[in-house]
Amino acid sequence: MGARLFGWGTESGALTAAEANALLDRVRPWLAITAPVEEPTLGEIELAPPRLAAAGALTPWMRSDPLARATHTYGQAYRDLVRRLERHFAPAPDLVARPPDEGGIVATLEWADAHDAVVIAFGGGTSVVGGIEAPCDDPRPVISLDLEAVSGVVEVDTLSLAARCRAGTRGPDLEAALAPRGLTLRHFPQSFEFSTVGGWLATHAAGHYATGPTRIDDAVESLRAVTPRGILETGRHPSWGAGPDPRAWLLGSEGALGIFSEAWLRVVARPTFHARVVARFPDVGAGVAAARDVAQSGLRPANARLLDPLEAVVSGAGDGGSALLLLGCESADHPVDGEMARLRELAADHGASFDDGDRRPDARWRDAFVRAPYARDVLVRAGLLVETFETVTTWDQLNALRHAAIGTAEDAVAASGSSGGRVSWRLTHLYPDGAALYVTVLAPARPHDRVGQVDEVRTALLTTLAAVGAPVTHHHAVGRVHQPALAASGPALATALLAGAKSVLDPRGLLSPGVLLASSRPGPGRPDDLG
Ligand SMILES: Cc1cc2nc3c(=O)[nH]c(=O)nc-3n(C[C@H](O)[C@H](O)[C@H](O)COP(=O)(O)OP(=O)(O)OC[C@H]3O[C@@H](n4cnc5c(N)ncnc54)[C@H](O)[C@@H]3O)c2cc1C
Questions:
Q1: 41-95 per-position pLDDT tens digit
Q2: Is the CB of 144 under 6 A from ligand 1?
Q3: Which residues are 426's β-sheet partners?
Q4: N or C: less crowded end of the chain, CB within 10 Å?
């Protein structure tokens, strides 16, 4: 992201004035909205003077100007958007480093260590959990390490079907490099346009595949990361059986154990056969049961999302009377009509009806999905709280958790003094043994304490999740925002193992303190046994 002081993506991608007005007109009848808050300008932002000045060989790619610092302060969570609108940029990093290559990453870490500074990896800046935000409880200066220049697809093995990709490569650039060879990674998170390979690896990102190989983890052949203790590289292995998988130590490490410089990722032939259908269920429970049958059928459709009636109507895909199950199959090898026919039978067994030949519900949902972050900017500027929460659970728990999570969110919004709020949900990823539950809250914001309000809603929801052992996230990551809840609810021995890995790879606590693990600054010096 990086270039805008407020807002998703690019200015040219934002909603036009007419589109924004139409959106607000749709919302106005049921939610109180305010006159739009103006976006911040650079001149309105006050930053403390940087506590470090670039020097030596690093000077050409280090910046400390207000624009670079302000655009590397926050990610894209609701709490980030409102702090931008409030012109509150206090956590701005002191320096932004844009190394040209892996050697520059090494040099930045060495320089930071010598200057007792903290380093926070910055990929596309689309984190929604405070992953790229400076810690407020650490007195050290902060360097935001932007991987933008360490990018590109540098090698493709067309025999093994894998591509060596640098960490700063954004989704569209990666796909553009693979397309001439007829290949694709087919990893399309909603943030695809602006997020990066390194960010995906660091957060266990989940792409558009609703079943089967959902996470970037499923595509990883090998990893290469710069740590304060040196380079950690795993070999290219189709599979691993020699003890704990070294890749697993780094995947999802959120910049707290090392900085990814590149990875070999498995790619596939671009699909040429497609089939799509939208199944409607007046009974939401029947939709859930159909989703479960689809997930357990062994068919692994590329798309299989269940939208509750409210999500369906908000996206323009439904009329609010039915839940929708969006189904899609694809293949580069064979026609998928047979698979789709069987999926339709599974849905029909639960009372589904279909809009045969009508592509519009599916197309409208896709369009709304891609443009949702731009629409959110408009709603937040108009005084609405718009935030999403997600988790994953087994099918035996799913309906109970769904009801509990929706009830909790509605109660928390009402308790925060906000009336008329709406809570919708969808199942975003299906597994044979369970599903990811994704909850969206839309409500009038509490003026003057919008961050406090969303934190109250989140705390209530996390308490409900903890009561049934559901994790704090399915794919939004942990960052600073979920770290305390993870520490309270996760297995204590797993946290100890993670702390052990941190003490081996980052003994002086240089990398992203407060992300994944509580921020506790190690004592001076390096433990003797680590050399
Ligand atoms: C509108 C919207 C939609 C989203 N949709 C999805 C979705 O569908 N699926 C999904 O999984 N997530 C989604 N996210 C969350 C976010 O996009 C993902 O977490 C994404 O993987 C972050 O990538 P990034 O390059 O933007 O990383 P950043 O936001 O820059 O960083 C994320 C974390 O990774 C670390 N990091 C970044 N680069 C590196 C590196 N090279 N080495 C080590 N650590 C690094 C950072 O320090 C930080 O902790 C969405 C977010 C938004 C705002």
A1: 999 999 999 999 988 889 999 999 999 999 999 999 999 999 999 999 999 999 9
A2: no
A3: 307, 438
A4: C
The one-letter amino acid code at 525 reads: G
Best residue for ligand 1 mutational test, from 96, 166, 174, 190 (most atoms within 8 Å of Cβ): 190
CA distance 72 to 133: 8
* Amino acid at site 523: G
Ligand 1 pocket, 478 CB below 6 A? no
Q: Which domains are seen in the chain, by residue range?
A: 11-146 (3.30.43.10), 153-269 (3.30.465.10), 272-379 (3.30.70.3450), 383-488 (3.30.300.330)
Ligand 1 nearest atom to the CA of residue 197, by list position = 25
| Residue 125 alpha carbon to ligand 1 centre in Å | 7
Note the pLDDT of residue 313: 85
The alpha helices in 308-359, defined as continuous H runs, are 309-314, 337-348
Token look-up 């975003």 returns 428
Give the rounded distance of the alpha carbon of 314 from its chain centre.
21
> 131 phi and psi, to 5 degrees?
-70, -25
Among 506, 490, 70, which Cα is nearest to 255's?
Answer: 506
Q: How far apart (Å, rounded) are the C-alpha atoms in residues 339 and 341? A: 5
Determine how many CB atoms are found less than 10 A away from the CB of residue 516. 26
Strands 95-97 and 142-146: parallel
The DSSP symbol for 308 reads: -
CA distance 467 to 117: 39
Calculate how far, in angstroms, residue 96's C-alpha sits from the geometric centre of ligand 1: 18
Q: Which residues on neighbouring strands pair with residue 143, listed in sequence order? A: 95, 119
CB atoms within 10 A of CB 188: 16
The answer to whether the CB of 142 is under 6 A from ligand 1 is: no
Note if the pTM is more than 0.90: yes
- Whether ligand 1 lies within 6 angstroms of the CB of 418 is answered as no
Q: How far is the CA of 159 from the centre of ligand 1 (A)?
A: 30
Percent of the chain whose predicted confidence (pLDDT) is above 90: 86
CA–CA dist 300, 512 (Å, integer): 37
Q: Which residue has the CA at smallest separation from atom 22 of ligand 1? A: 199
- Per-residue pLDDT tens over the stretch 346-385: 999 999 999 776 777 778 888 888 889 999 999 999 999 9
Query: Is the CB of 121 within 6 Å of ligand 1?
Result: yes
Give me the helices (H) in 122-204, please: 171-178, 197-203
Query: Of 217, 395, 404, whose CA–CA distance to 294 is shortest?
Result: 395
What span, in angstroms and rounded, lies between the C-alpha atoms of 145 and 511?
Answer: 10
- Cα separations in angstroms, 414 against 34, 403, 458: 19, 17, 13
27 lines ligand 1 (CB under 6 A): no
Which atom, in ligand 1's list, is nearest to the CA of 75? 29
CB environment 300-327: b (16+ within 10 A), e (fewer): bbbbbbbbbbbbbbbbebbeeebbbbbb
What SS3 class is residue 424?
Answer: strand
